[in-house]
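Notes from the 1:1 (GR / supervisor)

We went over the backlog. Supervisor wanted to see one worked example end to end before approving the batch request, so GR pasted a single chain during the call. The sequence is below; no edits were made to it. Supervisor asked that the structure be written out right there so they could see what the output format looks like.
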Amino acid sequence: MLLHKTMYNFKTIRPALAIVIALGLAAAGCGGQEDTAPAQGTLTVQLSRSRIALGSPVEVTYKFVVAADAGSLGNRKAFVHFLDADGEQMWTDDHEPPTPTAGWKPGQTIEYTRTVFAPVYPYVGPAKIVAGLYDTTSGERLKLSGTEAGGRAYAVAQFELLPQTANVFLIFKDGWHAVEAAADNSMVEWQWTKKEATLAFRNPRRDSTLYFQADNPGKAATAATQVEIRLGDQVIETVKLVADGPVHKIALPAAALGAGDMVELRLVVDQTFVPALEPGAASNDPRELGARVFHAFVQPQGS
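Structure output shown during the call:
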């Protein structure tokens, strides 16, 4: 049985343990125990561009083609690992396919696109993606056709990571609280707004797109339910604040950006709450909280 793993080398594992694991993987994949199970399908991954600046978004299109003679796949999750040139994992896009795998049929094609943000990671240069499907209960990986990278992980794409300086730099001006990070994953970061918050950036003087992702996990009756994104006096988008909010792609026409050297966007929520003031709350957080913003990124057209 091949179990789901998230790393592909052993640089950070104690030497003796690394040897044991390496021998175990070798035994599972060769030496009389060759993986002769029939492939249950293929997976291809296409990136919207091959050169990605740190901190920027990229559209990732996943295409699964189920084999004509495939059996029932059960409940499986996609693992998607972004690796540097040495095979070190940098970040992941593990996810549940929008159509559950338990319902996939032989010969069916499942294709969908996700917006993924490259985190600000201490690496630039060539990189690759390995991916596959694994059972959510046992961790066993599914046999697929393709270039195997070891342990039923398949090499599906290559790209180049560029420095963050290639991006339009956003200034988080007024109305923002300090950056926070998830306790279990320091690469997942966000900033809370107050009632209003301002983003500023140098005018790209061409049509652009604002990538914006926010939510509000607060349970208070006064927790924000939406945020208006304003350019001057004009509301260019109203974003509903829902759990696991999607990435919104909002058009910023060059004409709307004006002739000035700098552009300011204002985020205005419908209401705010203070955790410490909520009835029965165990929190002593005295901050006024509006929207929890995970991503705000300006992408000029053609860049």
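Supervisor's comment: The domain at 168-300 is CATH 2.60.120 (Jelly Rolls).
Batch request approved.
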